Amino acid sequence: MARAVTTNRKMINTAVAWLIGLLIFFPILWTILTSFKTEAQAIADPPIFLFFDWTLENYSVVQERSDYMRFLWNSIFLAGGSTILGLIIAVPAAWSMAFVPSKRTKDILLWMLSTKMLPAVGVLYPIYLLFIQLGLLDSRIGLTIVLMLINLPIIVWMLYTYFKEIPGEILEAARMDGAGLKEELLYILTPMAIPGIASTMLLNFILAWNEAFWTLNLTAVNAAPLTAFIASYSSPEGLFFAKLSAASTMAIAPILILGWFSQKQLVRGLTFGAVK
Amino acid sequence: MGQITLKQVTKSFGNVEVIPSLDLEIGDGEFTVFVGPSGCGKSTLLRLIAGLEDISSGQILIDGQDATSVPPAKRGLAMVFQSYALYPHMSVRKNIAFPLRMAKLHKAEQDRRVEQAAAVLNLTDYLDRRPGQLSGGQRQRVAIGRAIVREPSAFLFDEPLSNLDAALRVGMRLEISELHERLKTTMIYVTHDQVEAMTMADKIVVLRAGNIEQVGSPLELYKNPRNQFVAGFIGSPKMNFIQGEEAAKYGAHTIGIRPEHIAVSETDGTWSGIVSVSEHLGSDTFFHIHDTGLADTITVRAGGEIGFRHGDRIHMTPREDVIHKFNENGLRFT
Q: Which residues form the ABC transmembrane type-1 domain (chain A) (predicted)?
């Protein structure tokens, strides 16, 4: 028997959902609000919520002081580049693990994921040295590769799950129809996995966009993305909360908008395979 | 051309031997059915011929050429899968054209062949639909269409009708048989349904545990089964097997008598028993008879008008000339 859901029950559920949603969203909301305050109002005690003199001054100062577009372009390059590069490696990797598994495939998948448990700072030193040797410090190419590598396990895992959902007989049919490995990947597997690939790309793009550890440590000027842009507003002379908030808002705005428009795809992607 | 020869083919998965050494000859244009209970290796055998699985040892010849290590696409065979295995993101037209596209045929030639196949299979109105918008029978026809356009030297069918409902199955069975009549191309058809095997095949290969139990035409197998397994597997309802004293009268360990070879009467007969279930099909009636002292149940096929009911005493007389005799190893002798 289905559980009877009363109107009351529904209202409580809705209220709780909104509450949790607001709680999660609050830091972002607060950042956006603060970006419209003066520096004095930003650190006022008790904090002012909505009733302050709204100003755009912080945005104009931030825009004047630093070249937002350059940081934005770097962020797009890094997030986009690492995602595409990651896919090029992960699609064949996930294909082979999903369709021609060996005895050790499960172990390899787990091992790959385990690298995500490694604290990034643990490998900072060797990677930093490598970057010096290779002349990759503060280069977009170098950073793209690092971002791709740290997210690769997640891309492979997600794609692996999607590919597992595709019946093997369809690929066998393609093979009988004369498709080689390339055609099989290109005409059958990839188009069938497009929803999965799209959400993988999206998630990876967001992860790379928000990545701060490597982007801060391996860049100075040329390759610095929006995370460095935000960080540049926490200066030794003191924190300028309003300007920092304005910079943060500008940094997260593009990804927030992207996330908003693709939330359906994202949720479907993350829960894919959970329910038959 | 489509002559397929298997020479001492074996297949093992790890330590499990699925197909012990097997020899088989499939003639050009023949409709061959592999039949056997589930797990008998019939699908594996088909996949070995297709090249989707590698054989562990032995040789596969297609039209006299060694195809053992030729990849599936180059063997010139087309396969129809149980799950249809259509490409869900392509229209019916593109599904059917896919093998032609892979063969890099001219677009015009592709279109011509697709239209032709669609006409043969009554799919012309559905060419622009996606597989998801089709019924099971239509999907199966698309799968067949995709196989036809390649003009293969042989068709391989892997239980193609088992996902369809009973009425559709009978229809598709006829369509595939007609297709074979028209194309005269070699067809290898895997099924666990002996009715499909009997109705469609030129030649039936009965398999058990990877071994060929018997090869022959449907009526050959029906009339002269080599052993008790084949005798029991071919024919519906199943052959009745009787052991003990009654069999000993015929000098056999076991005797077998088909349900249609037993006459029934209210008054007299060689054997007697109590009707447990009577199934009236209109044209025929099947009686399942208990308490005969011969076997748990004796099944008899009688005319549609004969009306025994549950609990009635019934007398039976077997036709002596069609009693099959088996020795203790299950082999038939005369």
A: 72-262
Same domain, B227 and B242: no
Is the domain of B287 the same as that of B193? Answer: no
Cβ-based neighbour number of residue B181 at 10 Å: 9
| Interchain proximity B99–A170, CB inside 8 Å | no
Query: Who contacts B209 (Cβ-Cβ below 8 Å, separation ≥6)?
Result: B39, B40, B41
Whether B78 and B147 have beta carbons less than 8 Å apart is answered as: yes
Domain that holds residue B163: 4-232
- For residue A188, which residues of chain B lie inside 8 Å, CB to CB? 87
Q: What torsion, rounded to 10 degrees, do the Cα atoms B202, B207, B211, B217 define?
A: -20
List the beta strands (DSSP E) in B52-107: 57-62, 65-66, 77-80
pLDDT tens, residue by residue, B68-96:
999 998 899 999 998 889 999 899 999 99
Structure tokens at A19: 């509450």
d(CA B45, CA B9) in angstroms, rounded, equals 9
Query: pLDDT tens digit string along B275-305?
Result: 999 999 989 999 999 988 888 899 999 988 8
A111: in domain: yes
CA distances to A10, B61, B259, B304 from B316, in Å:
70, 51, 11, 17
Q: Is the pLDDT of residue B233 over 90?
A: yes
Report chain A residues whose CB lies below 8 A from the CB of B73: 175-180
pTM for the model? 0.77
Which residues of chain A lie closer than 8 angstroms to B150, CB-CB? 177-178
